[in-house]
Known about the structure:
By secondary structure, this protein is of the alpha+beta class.
Amino acid sequence: MNNSMISSAVSMAGIQQRLDLLADNIANVNTVGYKSKGATFEDTLTSIVKQEPGMGRTSRATPLGIQVGYGSRMTSITRDYSQGAIKDTGKDTDLAIQGNGLFAVQANGQKAWTREGDFHIQPDPMDNRLAYLVTSQGHYVLDKNNAPITVPAGSKLQIDANGNIKATLGQTTSNLGQAIQLVSPQRPEALEQRADNLFVLTAGANEADVLASNDTLPQNKQASLRQGALEESNVDLTTEMSEMLQVQRAYQLSARALTSSDTMTNLANNLRG
């Protein structure tokens, strides 16, 4: 396989990964609290093809030799944690985070984190007087003691900017003594995205090194909650569509280069015959 075929094939594989990321962003343009993803690319291994000394000229400004590349490859996926727009909903279990913060949840027995604040009340099957605060996927929302938040069944919630919860049932309003756990990512690169818009720690990462409790941060760096509102996805659809068109053109160019190389190879083989 000649160099042009290798370069085209490697580039097409990298461009396909970029297309997958763009498609993922576009698919989540309406996902609550979704953070858009980006990609970093770098050149693959390059080599220098030497030229004969006779190719040198006194007027030549460049050294002898041709640098031959083999396309590019994706080296890392980055995430844009910038604030998404806040949309009022008026629902008492909808919460939007303002600032750099994440909700702590329990998903499938494992601790995870999310920005998605469209919570629901789920009845406790063991006690009809109680209910759990859960995410839209049914994961338990955790309080500051890492316990699932329980509220009186049928109550209306009041949640302040620090996550403290009061419940009104009938004419009685009571302080539940529970507060929604908010953490701030200090090393976001140590968080790995999973399904259901969740983040978990990467292998070997320690929670205390990656996340800081919102309460321990200086006042001007603390995130706050806004009840009756949701944070929209921070995906810019116009930018994503424009970039997708550019990436598709690059993919078509690489595919055409691969086809041309294949055609030339077949011609050369027929000449030998």
